[in-house]
Amino acid sequence: MSEADVKELLWRNPLFMSLPDAALDEVLFASKLRKIPAKTTIFHQGDIPKEMVALGNGIVKVWQMRSGGATATIHVLGPGDLIGATAVFGRLPLLATATTVTDCVLLSWAVALTHDLMERFPVIRLNALGYVSLHAEELVQRLGEMATERVEQRIARSLLRLADHIGLAASGGVEIGYPLSRQDIAEIVGTDLYVVSRVLHDWTDRGFIMAGRLRIILCDRERIEQIATEGR
Amino acid sequence: MSEADVKELLWRNPLFMSLPDAALDEVLFASKLRKIPAKTTIFHQGDIPKEMVALGNGIVKVWQMRSGGATATIHVLGPGDLIGATAVFGRLPLLATATTVTDCVLLSWAVALTHDLMERFPVIRLNALGYVSLHAEELVQRLGEMATERVEQRIARSLLRLADHIGLAASGGVEIGYPLSRQDIAEIVGTDLYVVSRVLHDWTDRGFIMAGRLRIILCDRERIEQIATEGR
DNA sequence: CGCAAGATTGAAGGACATCAAAGGGCGTGG
DNA sequence: CCACGCCCTTTGATGTCCTTCAATCTTGCG
């Protein structure tokens, strides 16, 4: 990956938008680039983060191991997303573990350096505030859904979000852009893989989706949106 | 309420901590103070906020009306908390309605003014970033709980949070500092008032709490924490 | 005292979780 | 290249937690 490519990554990152070119160069110079394989843990739940990480390429899952052995997936991140940002910005311990799902390209900055950059280039802090605020609003939305909606509805919402966030155009619809098992979906919506299997099968019969092994294509977005909002 | 009192409010507010005295005066001068009665709506779900609001005194409930008629309570705010902060900082529409539970004293700043103050006093923006980050982490935690835990466990967690946040010392324990019905708790944890009633009654029998009409006192914090973490 | 709002309690039903077992893809190694 | 084995998926049966409905009881207040 060339320096120009990395600069392109930065340029499109929500944190560094509207940054003057000279400043961008400095951020670039201060960054550390690394590639890591799938199923590698970047941050561990409970740790104090030592660096701020931006995802250049690949998919990262942010999840919690909870008492009783259950695991909850908090977020599925794609290119451009920040990892552990709230912990770094708030100087807080991490509440979740971040693990790569696919091979990934990461950009990182040591915590002190991150704060230093924000101090020197106020636009970055402005962007950070906007990013975290947006993130918080999404969490509010999901909390409301979790509190009031049924499993089928929540599955619909999750798939729509995944499609919008990391979806790929496919023949006959939008495909979720990474291997996604029934278990994975279950951990996102807070249920078990059996319920997910039944729901997806039902939707397949009705022609809303095409579901394969580790693979889901949304065919009829309208109908899925209908399920997401109306519940049936 | 005297000017000195208001300044005291600001001084303790998470957004204006570590602010030089002169700057604090300016913030104070730019602020608008108002008192509003209980059960008044401050922000409406879906609106674009016109001002940033800090809660000086009283209790405010932040809640969503959801399709199907269900309502979910996102947050119960007490003195010092910000209302609609993420929407203002992220220039986003509000995802929830904010309604006063008790009579309240509010401090507010027009949106443009808020951004202007942050621009001129970078410490405020730094504080804002920390505040929103902390808020986001709490939401992550609650999302994980909602996804994996049973109702009784979630009730325990809610009561502990309420006690820590707006609890008052009472004879025999900590009392939740405002009128709180079974229905209110149900909307916080995502269930119905009947389940809440049964659980609270059970806890009363076991001596963990004292539950009255619109009134709850936590007697045995240890045991409630145990329920919150272990599930029984 | 009587009313209204909150709280309790029982019964019945439904959505979901759990357990068990069998049926496919897909990669790997013989 | 085929067969084996692993992992993902499906499907049924069963149990339970929770929701819903209905009715009664309590409490505080006008």
UniProtKB/TrEMBL annotation, chains A, B:
Gene3D superfamilies: Jelly Rolls (2.60.120.10), Winged helix-like DNA-binding domain superfamily/Winged helix DNA-binding domain (1.10.10.10)
Keywords: DNA-binding, Transcription, Transcription regulation
SMART domains xref list: cNMP (SM00100), HTH_CRP (SM00419)
Ranges of residues in domain HTH crp-type: 149-222
Entry's Gene Ontology molecular function annotations: DNA binding; DNA-binding transcription factor activity
Location of the Cyclic nucleotide-binding domain: 15-108
One of the record's GO cellular component terms: cytosol
KW Transcription (keyword) present: yes
InterPro entries xref list: cNMP-bd_dom, cNMP-bd_dom_sf, Env_Response_Regulators, HTH_CRP, RmlC-like_jellyroll, WH-like_DNA-bd_sf, WH_DNA-bd_sf
CDD domains named among the record's database cross-references: CAP_ED (cd00038)
Domain of life (superkingdom): Bacteria
Name the UniProt record assigns to this protein: Crp/Fnr family transcriptional regulator
